[in-house]
Design brief:
Chain lengths: 114, 147
């Protein structure tokens, strides 16, 4: 049986980390190019960038990848350095809460753009 | 003696640690941080972790910035002013470095996964390259933001 807060979830984490990295590596240049094309980026132009549905979905997927990738990375760091189980699980809970909130928050932000 | 103990320390590198077979003979215990000479790949790896941690901790602030930038023209303006301020520039430059390094060193790791650049010479070269390019990009952005 897996120990609570243990490290032995290697392969799925490894794969998700690579897949999210690949998506972000493609999205960042693409988004930068679109933003560059919309210069000068005043408020109206910046908001306009987020109006189309494909951009909302692409950006939401990007933020999801960012949060998942960040979580897996932080988890690895916590496994390496935080050995007290209570402290480690508390850290897990803290980052899970913050990151889950960030995800819902991002949906709210993106879909508030008309 | 000195050299072999340094190498013994390096075999503890985290990417290899899990697959390590227990060694029968007692290994030299040598953890004088000032005397250990890290290979360039180890330095790139540590910076990859450090920049990753920085970006992960900065992510909620990024979402907050996204909200401000899209909420109203006034908030967009005040965010732009903050980014243009001295402290804002410093934070942004730290993020630019962290992102550039993490991105480039990450591409290097994806290459390793595909079996590309694993030999000693190439991996040393790409380690230097990722670190050098990240610093160069940060320097260029710094110059551009001052201009």
């Amino acid at each position: 049986m897996r120990r609570a807060g243990g490290a032995h979830r290697g392969l799925d984490m490894w794969l998700i980390q690579r897949a999210s990295a690949a998506y972000m590596a493609l999205f960042i240049p693409l988004f930068s190019a679109l933003a560059w094309r919309a210069t000068p980026l005043d408020y109206i132009a910046w908001r306009g960038l987020f109006a189309p549905l494909p951009m909302k979905l692409g950006m939401l997927l990007f933020v999801t990848c960012l949060l998942v990738h960040g979580w897996i990375g932080l988890r690895e760091i916590l496994i390496d350095y935080v050995h007290a189980l209570v402290l480690r699980l508390t850290s897990y809970f803290f980052f899970w809460t913050v990151y889950a909130a960030c995800l819902v928050w991002t949906v709210d932000i993106l879909w508030s753009v008309g | 003696m000195e050299k072999s103990s340094t190498e013994a320390v390096y075999t503890g590198h985290r990417h290899q640690a899990s697959s390590q077979i227990p060694v029968k003979s007692p290994r030299p215990f040598f953890l004088n941080l000032l005397a250990i000479r890290l290979p360039v790949g180890a330095v790139a790896s540590i910076l990859h972790r450090g920049s990753g941690a920085l970006l992960a901790l900065f992510t909620p602030a990024l979402v907050y910035g996204l909200m401000l930038s899209l909420r109203s023209a006034q908030d967009f303006q005040s965010l732009a002013e903050w980014v243009g301020s001295g402290f804002g520039k410093l934070v942004m430059l730290a993020c630019v470095w962290a992102l550039a390094h993490h991105f480039l060193a990450g591409l290097r790791h994806l290459g390793f996964d595909l079996g590309w650049g694993e030999d000693r010479r190439t991996s040393r070269m790409t380690a230097w390259l990722s670190m050098g390019l990240a610093v160069t990009i940060t320097g260029l952005v710094a110059l551009w933001s001052l201009a």
